[in-house]
Write a structure and sequence with these properties.
Length: 264
């Protein structure tokens, strides 16, 4: 964010806090990788001892809207203005999602390609998996429907042997899996795809399916994702908790990737 944008933002904020300056705010928080709502409250109360909680919430909302801070976890913020990850959506992904959406009414599903991981890896993969996830009670039906449409190289919940011997031999394969409830998803070009947090958790948990992205490449993916984009740690850890792997993932990020996850 440019200094001009910061200045315009803080002119608005300073109407609510006359003694607060852009220089003071940046000086106070730029040396910290993250800070809490209580830190912001303490900062503003130095000049506004009677500051109400509702006023603080509105001020935080304005800071977020203007891009001055972003929320990295519930009640935890950072000055680092990193963009949200929006993947490119291939035509093959859009086509599959469109077919499912038209054939099934009101089911929760998403489709994505491992090709989107190339921006995070050192080695560019030439074999990709298109992952098709749908609610557990319709995954078998989705698989049969896509088989009837003539979709090639399609596998239903492949086991370790299938993932090792079949998925690695074709330039593009398709896999139908069950979608965990409350999975973090986003809509891009009218196609429901995972958020970055979901993909990170999935490649960590599903080691057989994402065999090509284990070891040093998974480290590259995590490190590059955290460095380039705004990763919401609440979303990341909540989803990993639903998958029963929160502690392992937290330990991996802190010890292997050397990223200090903030604690609310």
């Amino acid at each position: 964010m440019s200094n001009v944008t910061y200045l315009c933002t803080f002119k608005i904020l300073n109407r609510m806090a006359p003694n607060t300056t852009i220089e003071g705010f940046i000086k106070r928080f730029s040396r910290k990788s993250h800070f809490s709502k209580n830190d912001l409250l303490a900062y503003y109360m130095k000049s506004e001892p009677d500051l109400k909680d509702g006023t603080l919430r509105r001020r935080i909302a304005l800071l977020k809207k203007r891009g001055v801070i972003h929320e990295v976890s519930r009640g935890i913020y950072s000055l680092q203005n990193k963009p949200q990850w929006i993947p490119s959506v291939e035509n093959s992904v859009k086509s599959i999602y469109s077919k499912i959406a038209k054939h099934y009414i009101d089911i929760n599903c998403c489709v994505w390609s491992t090709a989107c991981l190339n921006e995070f890896t050192n080695l560019q993969a030439f074999r990709h998996i298109i992952v098709i996830e749908a609610e557990k009670d319709v995954t078998q039906s989705v698989y049969e429907y896509l088989t009837d449409t003539g979709l090639k190289n399609l596998y239903y919940k492949p086991d370790r042997k299938e993932a090792t011997y079949y998925l690695s031999n074709a330039s593009q394969t398709h896999v139908v899996e069950s979608l965990f409830s409350k999975s973090p998803l986003q809509l891009v070009k009218n196609t429901r795809v995972p958020k970055l947090e979901k993909i990170l958790v999935d490649i960590f948990c599903d080691k057989d399916l994402f065999l090509a992205y284990q070891g040093s490449e998974m480290e590259n993916i995590f490190r590059n994702a955290f460095n380039a984009y705004a990763v919401n740690n609440s979303i990341l850890l909540n989803y990993s908790r639903r998958r029963g792997r929160e502690k392992e993932l937290t330990d991996y990020i802190r010890n292997k990737i050397d990223i200090k996850l903030p604690v609310a």
